[in-house]
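Repro:
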Amino acid sequence: MSDEPILPDYGRGGLTGVLAQVAAELVKPTAMGSVKRYVVVLVDGLGWYGLQAALADAPYLAGIFGDGQRLTSTVPSTTAAAITAFTTGVAPGEHGLVGYRFRWAAGRGMNALTWEGGPDTATGLAETWFQRLTAAGVSVNNIARAKFTDSGLTKVAFAGARFIPEAGAQARVDQIAALAVAGERSLTYVYELSLDHVGHAKGSNSAQWRETLSAIDAFLEQLRDALDSDTALLITGDHGMVDAGQRSRVVLEDETRLGTDLEQVEGEARFRHLYTARPRDLAARWAAVLGERAWVQRREEAIEQGWFGTVSAAVRPRIGDVVVAMRADGALLTRQWPGEMKLIGMHGSLTPAEMYVPLLIDEGK
């Protein structure tokens, strides 16, 4: 694989372009016999290369992988940024969720998944495809675990979709199939989080990860069998994953050369947002200390290179004055969040393993 950063495609070759194509088919069918209903399953943590290496454990996905498309995730390659890009069709620089954590206000960090530190009223900066499709008369549903019902991320990234708490086990297959045919034209979005959770805890190269992928594969095959011939099944991921090596981990508080002039640290172990009054000096020092272990860019450089897509004036201050993306299997940890120390699988950076995700389509005809 390339040792150069994989730059995101915020057009048809990336996650941002998928629902635009689905919407075009649902709102203005292009031909007789066009698909009237779509079920889209997003498997958190399903990367292109991770899946490719484990196809023997996923026979259903293996059968459709050859016709699949390799898409790019977002920068950073993390859930809040990528899923919101997927549902809105715009890059993080426009939708505003520029990472797992980022600066929301001076000295105040925000967790985009839990909404801790974020605004009391969760209002998105970009209209979602769900809002557009609902306005066009399409039945739109979002199926996920009940705990996400009123989350800030749900309100921003899934505005316009009817939230349906997922049923358990086999009942979920029946639930999805019934919702898909509830309207003449429908889009049913399904979120599957177990692969990402196992990857973080056990590693993306672990036996547990492959066992979880096998269970998801069986679920997807059952789902395809339960859907009617007018319903297409789309399967994708938000990012891939890298297992951080023990020798490749840097603890910020233990590397005294990195802390000077540093006002605030956000992001996650594979992608850090750094806030400082002296970005040029900070970037030069971090680049010198980390060397080939990281890509270090000032905000202006990262924006110019297209990392965050078009960046609005409202979003610009949320991006670190300096951003640091770890290369290979490196991780930049901080004791501010001790839970990071326990993770094995991580993501957020611009490596192929993290940036490439699959788009697999089974029309079932």
